[in-house]
Amino acid sequence: MVEGDYTPSGYRIDREDLESFLGPLEAEVLNKIWEKNVPVRVREIYEELKEKRKIAYTTVMTTMNTLYEKGLLDRRIEKGRGGLLYVYWSKMSKKEIERSVVRQVINSLLKNFGNSVTSYLMEITDSDEEKLNAFKKLFEERLENEKVDN
After folding, report:
1. Which of 46, 51, 64, 97 has its CA 20 to 30 A from that of 117?
2. Per-10-residue mean pLDDT for the chain, 150 residues long?
3. 3-state secondary structure labels for all residues of the chain
């Protein structure tokens, strides 16, 4: 695993975007935090979510804590009007999380189904010139980087 990687506990092929490895509420909360792009309190996210649906403050609090435990959010304790409270922020950008998930899923597929994965990647590039050119570019860049490193 690469430093800063997020390892999804499961990958759902029937879902899209963040929901392929997070629950729907987790994905929505994470997107809200990225939109704000500053540390946020649970109350701020709760207030936005309750405008669209019936949701309990404790549900949002638990979801943000779960994202913290999964390593996707970081937090600190601050003093607030009602006492101590957590302030959360994202540990990784959306692009970093997506890249990490792709790396984990592809590595798992290669480990378990190596030749089939390689064969399929070749198959899809044969039928799509744009994908073939993208793969060629990536391989050429990789080869150039290896030459520089050696």
Report:
1. 97
2. 58 76 91 95 96 96 95 92 91 89 84 86 79 80 74
3. CCCCCCCCCCCCCCCCHHHHCCCHHHHHHHHHHHHHCCCEEHHHHHHHHHCCCCCCHHHHHHHHHHHHHCCCEEEEEEEECCEEEEEEEECCCHHHHHHHHHHHHHHHHHHHHHHHHHHHHHHHHHCCHHHHHHHHHHHHHHHHHHHHHC
110: buried, middle or exposed (CB in 10 Å: 19+, 13-18, 0-12)? middle
Nearest to 42 by CA among 86, 11, 96, 104: 86
pLDDT of residue 21: 81
Amino acid at position 101, single letter = V
Query: What is the CATH T-level fold of the domain 17-91, as seen in this structure?
Result: Arc Repressor Mutant, subunit A (1.10.10)
Report the pLDDT value the prediction gives residue 62, as an integer from 0 to 100: 97
AA identity, residue 132: L
